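Re: [ENG-882] Designed sequences occasionally contain unexpected residues at chain ends

Forwarding the minimal case from QA. C-alpha cells:
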C-alpha cells in the first residue's frame, strides 16, 4: 500500500478531458481537438454497464433504487488482487470510459478502471425525474455515498473486503469529490488523485475571470475586454436581437447572453487552446475587423451552431423544460444549493460584462428553483463538512 500511494504522487497524471467535456459544446472544433488529444494517449471502446444504486442512502425506511451507468476497463488488470481505479463522473454525461492519463496509471500499476456516472447526469437519473422536488436527492453527500456503495458492492464480487486497493480519481468538480471521498469515507480507498479539484466552494468566484485573463496574456485579455465592450455597446444601443442572431441566441435575455459569450472565451483557455481564441480576436483587432462578428464566427466554429441557442444558458428554459436539458439544469441545482462557483465580473479589468454579477446568479437560482435553494448557506455548510481549501483528509494527491 505504501509503495502504491507514494508512486501515485510521482505519476504526472490528469483526468481525461474528453470524458468530462460539456455536452452543449460538442458540435464544434474544440470537441474534435480534445478527442484527438485524448486518443493520442489511450482510447478504449467499452460497453455501458449498470449498477442498482440506492436513491436515498440516508433514509433507513427506503429501499428505492435507480440504474447508474458505469464502464469497466480490464485490459491492464493482470491479477485478481490488483488495484482498482475508481474514476468519478462529473457534471455531464459519462458517455465512455475515460482515456488519457488514467490509462497511464492503470498500465503502470496493472489496475482495473471503473468509471461511474454521477447521479442526475447522462442516463443515471433517480426516478427518471428532473423536477425541483426530486433534486433533493442531488447532493454531494448522496454522490459520495454512491461511490461508497458502488465500491463495496463491486468489491464483494472480487473477493474479501481488503483484497484490492482502490484509488479514486477525478478532475475539477469530480476532483473535489475524489478529495471529499477521502474525508467522508477514509477507509474505502487507499488514496485519491484530485486533478484541478475545486475543493473550496466559492460564493463570488471573481478569481475565475482573473485566472483566465492571466492565462490568456495581457494583449489577448485586453482584446477580449474590448470585445465584451463592443457587445455591450450594440445591445444598449438597441441592436441586441441582431447581435444575438449571430449566435442563434436571439431568445436569450441580455445577462444570459453575456454569460454565454464569457464562457465561449473561457472554455478555449480552460481546455488548452487559448491560441485559437487569442489568434482569432487579436488578429481581428489588428486588422480592424468587427470584434462582434469575429467573436461570433469564433464561437460557432469552436462550439457549434447550437452552443448559444440551446437551454444551457437560457434561464427561462432551465425553469420550464425539465426533460431535454438535464445536465445544465442539474448543474445549476448543485451550484444553487451547495457549491455556488458563481463566476462574477471582477471589480477591475473584467473579461465578462458587469451584468454577470452575483445578483444575476441569485435571480437565476430563484427563477429556476424557487425559494428552496440558499447558495450562501450551502457554501458555508459544504466548506465546514469537507474543509474547503484544506480538506480534512489524508493521502489526497493534488495536481493541475
Amino acid at each position: 500500500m505504501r509503495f502504491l500511494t507514494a508512486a501515485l504522487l510521482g505519476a504526472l497524471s490528469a483526468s481525461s478531458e474528453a470524458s468530462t467535456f460539456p455536452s452543449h459544446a460538442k458540435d464544434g472544433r474544440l470537441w474534435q481537438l480534445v478527442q484527438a488529444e485524448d486518443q493520442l494517449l489511450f482510447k478504449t471502446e467499452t460497453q455501458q454497464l449498470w449498477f442498482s444504486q440506492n436513491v436515498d442512502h440516508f433514509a433507513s425506511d427506503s429501499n428505492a433504487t435507480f440504474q447508474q451507468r458505469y464502464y469497466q476497463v480490464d485490459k491492464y488488470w493482470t491479477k485478481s488482487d490488483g488495484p482498482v481505479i475508481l474514476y468519478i463522473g462529473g457534471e455531464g454525461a459519462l458517455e465512455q470510459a475515460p482515456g488519457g492519463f488514467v490509462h497511464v496509471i492503470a498500465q503502470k500499476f496493472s489496475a482495473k478502471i471503473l468509471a461511474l456516472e454521477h447521479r442526475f447526469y447522462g442516463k443515471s437519473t433517480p426516478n427518471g425525474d428532473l423536477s425541483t422536488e426530486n433534486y433533493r436527492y442531488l447532493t454531494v453527500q448522496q454522490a459520495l455515498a454512491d461511490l461508497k456503495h458502488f465500491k463495496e458492492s463491486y468489491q464483494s464480487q472480487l473477493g474479501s473486503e481488503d483484497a484490492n486497493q482502490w484509488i479514486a480519481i477525478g478532475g475539477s468538480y469530480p476532483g473535489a469529490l475524489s478529495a471529499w471521498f477521502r474525508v467522508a469515507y477514509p477507509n474505502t480507498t487507499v488514496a485519491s488523485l484530485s486533478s484541478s479539484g475545486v475543493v473550496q466552494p466559492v460564493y463570488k468566484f471573481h478569481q475565475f475571470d482573473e485566472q483566465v485573463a492571466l492565462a490568456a496574456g495581457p494583449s489577448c485579455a485586453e482584446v477580449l475586454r474590448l470585445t465584451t465592450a463592443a457587445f455591450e455597446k450594440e445591445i444598449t444601443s438597441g441592436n441586441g436581437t441582431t447581435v444575438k442572431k449571430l449566435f442563434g441566441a436571439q431568445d436569450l435575455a441580455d445577462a444570459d447572453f453575456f454569460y454565454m459569450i464569457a464562457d465561449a472565451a473561457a472554455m478555449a483557455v480552460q481546455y488548452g487552446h487559448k491560441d485559437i481564441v487569442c489568434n482569432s480576436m487579436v488578429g481581428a483587432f489588428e486588422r480592424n475587423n468587427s470584434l462582434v462578428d469575429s467573436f461570433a464566427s469564433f464561437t460557432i466554429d469552436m462550439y457549434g451552431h447550437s452552443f448559444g441557442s440551446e437551454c444551457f444558458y437560457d434561464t427561462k428554459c432551465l425553469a420550464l423544460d425539465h426533460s431535454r436539458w438535464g445536465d445544465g439544469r442539474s448543474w445549476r441545482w448543485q451550484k444553487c444549493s451547495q457549491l455556488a462557483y458563481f463566476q462574477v465580473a471582477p471589480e477591475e479589468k473584467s473579461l465578462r460584462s458587469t451584468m454577470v454579477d452575483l445578483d444575476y446568479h441569485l435571480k437565476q437560482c430563484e427563477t429556476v428553483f424557487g425559494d428552496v435553494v440558499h447558495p450562501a448557506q450551502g457554501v458555508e455548510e459544504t466548506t465546514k463538512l469537507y474543509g474547503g481549501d484544506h480538506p480534512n483528509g489524508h493521502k489526497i494527491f493534488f495536481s493541475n
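QA comment: On inspection the terminal residues look reasonable. Strands lie at 49-54, 65-73, 84-88, 112-116, 166-171, 191-195, 396-399. Proposing we downgrade this to a documentation issue.
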